[in-house]
Specification:
The protein has a six-stranded mixed beta sheet, with helices on one face. It is globular and about 45 Å long. It is about 25% helix and about 45% strand. The chain has a single domain, classed as Nuclear Transport Factor 2, Chain: A (Roll), CATH 3.10.450.50. It is of the alpha+beta class. This is NTF2-related export protein. It comes from Araneus ventricosus (Orbweaver spider). It holds the Pfam family NTF2. InterPro entries: NTF2, NTF2-like_dom_sf, NTF2_dom, Nuclear_transport_factor_2_euk.
Length: about 140
Amino acid sequence: MTDKRSKVDLSGQSGIDFSKLFYETMDKKRHLVSNLYLDTATLVWNGNPYQGKENISKFYETLPVSSTDIRSVDAQPILDEYVQGQTTVLVSVSGIVKFTGRSSTLYSESFLLTAQQGSSGNVWKIVSDCFRFHETLS
């Protein structure tokens, strides 16, 4: 039970830390955002798929400057038996984003993260990312 509790605690803090890093990079250092993705990552942006780190980077370069306000973050560990023992976390984020030339919009985004060995220990990399604007219903 302690092991499960520590995984939940780790995923919660990791989700918060990763979300702050991701949106700060997206808003202030967009040219570096693709470094947060695995080479084989997938992004689905409002239903439009982008496969691979290079294509994701090219897509992000087309977006106007953004300012993001995170309102909520939830993170849950993925059970080892589903990811062959690889440390994996599902992070769900919602908030408000403003792109230059557009009004502020509610959004939600889900990241599937996996721990990868980096030069200074484990780092989180995005396996898949699904972004959606919240549209107002009439």
